[in-house]
Design a protein that fits this description.
single chain, 411 residues, alpha+beta, FAD/NAD(P)-binding domain, 8-stranded mixed β-sheet, 12 helices
């Protein structure tokens, strides 16, 4: 076993959230280590070119203005957007079982865009390019095999063991290792969770009509369907990333279809808003489960991103909630450093939890409410949601205030 190494802060998980946090902490002057099971060189490599819809990664994120500001402050937004990305100016949402429709326009908010659709791998690659030039010590291509702590001292060291024999110690350990966080389980932070009995189908499609830089979302009793605009290097405006949440049995039926039959189902589900679906990439499906940690912190330990909370993808807010965690934790740790406090100070961690827990729970409750409202087929509820959508669409200032708050716009 190799000699133990000690850091101020240890971040476990080098995805979009963990790598951004590690980079930000290093910029504040903390001695930081980042552990990621994938190999950094592979993350930095551009993906092999493919043809058409297969060239895009199925997993994308709708980056809000607030998340963009964070990535700008970290100095990585330019690197990320040097590759392909698609700012969208309009969002259109409607009820598939009625006439209710609402549309949000960037122009009405005096904003350049409502957000930006980016493939997750491009975000991670931009962050890892910056990490390579930072003071962050990266342990990549290695798995975490255990957790340990000095039980005798709440402020004492704690840390992890790696499969290559490294023992890493830190005053504060941050778990950014995803929804099934092993660190969260080892530390003993329980979660509240429930299964939606739904699966999300993701893939890339090419349509006959242009997406018109619009994010489209149609609700149905069996789940929402989103068409998110993509823009390849040649400027072709006919590609979209889809996220189709469906009841489990229906999702399995759709996954079993050949590409032509699946394209036909998509056309009907989106009511041919973009014309025919010409081609479809390979499809992925994953089960949907809402999960929320009862506590985000323990002595010398904190959760961020999916390790703390997972949310239904109907509003595309998962990555943005994770970046909200990063902003809050960076802010609290910056204040602690200026005040001469340690990274594991209990009041620092408590403030982080207070700032994020309420906001995340509010968003999760809102998304659950939307899902339940649109899943019900009773006539009074159908009338209520369609009337409500039409009414809200006519209230410009109210509608725009809601959109600005949800998308992190300063208006």
């Amino acid at each position: 076993m190799t000699e133990s190494q000690t850091f101020d802060i240890l971040v476990v998980g080098g995805g979009m959230v963990g790598s951004a946090l590690a980079l930000g902490l290093s910029r504040q002057g903390w001695r930081v280590a980042l552990v990621e099971s994938s190999e950094g060189q592979k993350l930095l490599q551009a993906p092999a070119a493919a043809q058409g819809v297969e060239d895009f990664e199925p997993r994308v994120s709708a980056i809000s203005a607030a998340s963009q500001r964070l990535l700008e402050q970290l100095g990585v937004w330019g690197e990320i957007t040097a590759g392909r990305h698609c700012p969208y100016q309009t969002m259109t949402v409607w009820d598939g079982d009625g006439t209710g429709r609402i549309q949000f326009e960037a122009a009405e908010l005096q904003a350049r865009s409502l957000g930006t659709i980016i493939e997750n791998r491009h975000i991670v690659r931009g962050l890892f390019a910056a990490l390579a030039d930072s003071d962050v010590e990266l342990f990549d291509g290695v798995k975490v095999t255990g957790w340990w702590q000095d039980d005798a001292r709440a402020q004492g060291p704690r840390g992890i063991t790696l499969e290559d024999g490294h023992v890493l110690a830190a005053h504060l350990v941050v778990a950014a290792d995803g929804a099934h966080s092993r660190l969260r389980q080892w530390v003993g932070l329980p979660t509240r969770e429930w299964d939606y009995d739904q699966q999300a189908i993701v893939c890339t499609v090419r349509t006959v009509q242009s997406h018109r830089f619009t994010a489209w979302q149609r609700f149905s009793p069996t789940g929402p369907l989103a068409f998110l605009p993509l823009l390849p290097e040649n400027g072709d405006e006919h590609y979209c990333s889809i996220v189709w949440s469906q009841d489990t049995e229906e999702a399995r039926r759709l996954m079993a279809l050949d590409d032509s039959a699946f394209a036909g189902e998509l056309e009907r589900a989106i009511e041919r808003e973009l014309g025919a679906v010409e081609s479809v990439s390979r499809r992925l499906a994953f089960p949907l489960r809402q999960r929320h940690a009862k506590d985000y912190v323990a002595p010398g330990f904190a959760l961020v991103g999916d390790a703390a909370h997972t949310i239904h993808p109907l509003a595309g807010q998962g990555a943005n909630l994770g970046y909200g965690d990063v902003r809050a934790l960076l802010d609290e740790l910056s204040r602690a450093r200026k005040a001469g406090l340690g990274a594991a100070d209990e009041f620092v961690l408590a403030r982080y939890q207070r700032r994020r827990k309420g906001e995340n729970l509010t968003m999760m409750a809102a998304m659950e409410g939307f899902k339940q409202l649109f899943a019900r087929d009773e006539l009074p509820l159908r009338w209520l949601r369609n009337t409500g959508l039409r009414w809200l669409n006519q209230l410009g200032p109210v509608k725009n205030r809601i959109a600005a708050d949800a998308m992190g716009l300063d208006v």
